[in-house]
Amino acid sequence: MMRRRTALLTGCTALVLALGATACGSDDPVSAGGGDGAKTLSGQTVTVAGVWTGSEQKNFQKVLDAFSAKTGAKTQFVSTGDNVSTVIGSKIEGGNAPDVVMVPQVGVLQQFAKKGWLKPLSAATQQSVGSNYAPVWKKYGSVGNTLYGLYFKAAHKSTVWYSPAALDQAGVKPPATYAEMLTAGHTVSDSGLAAFSVAGEDGWTLTDWFENIYLSQAGPEKYDALAAHQLKWTDASVVKALDTLGKLFQDKQLLAGGQKEALNTDFPGSVEKVFGPKPEAGMVYEGDFVAGVAHDQFGRTVGKDANFFPFPPVDGGKAPVVSGGDAAVVLKDGKNSKAGMQLVEYLATPEAAGVWAKAGGFLSPNKALDLAAYGDDVTRATAKSLVGAGDSVRFDMSDQAPASFGGTKGVGEWKLLQDFLRDPSDAKGTAAKLESAAAKAYQGQG
User: Fold this and answer.
1) From the DSSP assignment, how many helices (H) and strands (E) are in the chain?
2) Quick one: signal sequence residues (predicted)?
3) What is the pLDDT of residue 354?
4) Residue 174 or residue 38, greater confidence
5) Which domains does the chain have, with CATH numbers?
6) What is the pTM for the complete model shown?
7) Residue 402: its pLDDT value, please?
8) Cα 193 from chain centroid (whole Å)
9) Which whole-number Å values give the CA distances from 351 to 297, 347, 375, in the listed order?
10) Dist CA 99 CA 47 (whole Å)
11) Distance of CA 12 to CAs 124, 373, 385, 390, Å?
12) pLDDT per residue as tens digits for the range 242-271
């Protein structure tokens, strides 16, 4: 799956947020475990597992290589595929547990902690998180009052990507509200392109559409309650959000190819419909990672041929900032968990984040990272938006749910929202089905 500050604001950090290009000094928690010239981990190997493949895996390897140069440790990365929970469980049972896992879902992190698989993170990492991350990132990395996960890579999932040429041709500007976005979409459609390309074949993209609308429309308190299943999916606020989404889904002017084609379009295909050689739509909603696909697969120059505007506020609410992310956790059963803990300490530094930021396709929630580390103005803007949102960031709701409800192809929320895309006429009925599936999943979890 593609997927996603500050208890203490120093004057330097404030300047970073304001200007986006000011360097800040920082302590190096890893230096005690082996700074340059002190290769205290020489001869040791740290095994890291995560979902990343392709360019993401290559760029993360650059971070691991920087850690090796600093400490002398060797590293080995193992790709798990999307089903992290099952793969890691099998490795633990087989006596072959990795030392560190990059966990892409809050629900999976909580599951690992409750099974007793994780080591609490070190005092050095806790200090870095307390100083350089918004409290919300500590919350999503903790179970109870214990910090188990360090969010290294984040995704900004409240970005609508567009072709500047398509909007210019239609004579429209990036909209300031959700209603204006739909109006602009009709104008784009009148000019010869569909408004939106929707990746309905991948159910996770539909959950992201819902979450942005819901967070803006219903507000953060209800979002948090629904994410924890303390609020039922049959609540009127859910039905209202589904109604709002359904109006977009059933509007043939707005969807490239209509509902049927949307259901046969995966995420890369949705980006291709906007930024590929034969554009069919002017806009595609998804996270900051759209830019990487537009550039790497279709040769688009980000900032010139591809740009974004923030997901606009809905019905007078606040503009949503929904995020995802990958958290580094240390397994108790790893053969070299002590060295793994030092790797996580390194990942908590702006130095480590800067390695991947320079390579591209990356956002860090670490506010101590100099925004100049990012390679282009558009990425700097998305990073600034994410960091600047502070505690108003909300983690992807489906990633907080049990995987059987919020993270599995063909079942739960993914399938039910695909069914809703196919026929958006019954928001109440869809809400009831979502509640039934959620109740079953949360009961099974606990």
Assistant:
1) 21, 13
2) 1-23
3) 98
4) 174
5) 11-156+323-395 (3.40.190.10), 159-320+404-445 (3.40.190.10)
6) 0.84
7) 87
8) 29
9) 28, 8, 15
10) 5
11) 21, 15, 18, 16
12) 999 999 999 999 999 999 999 999 999 999
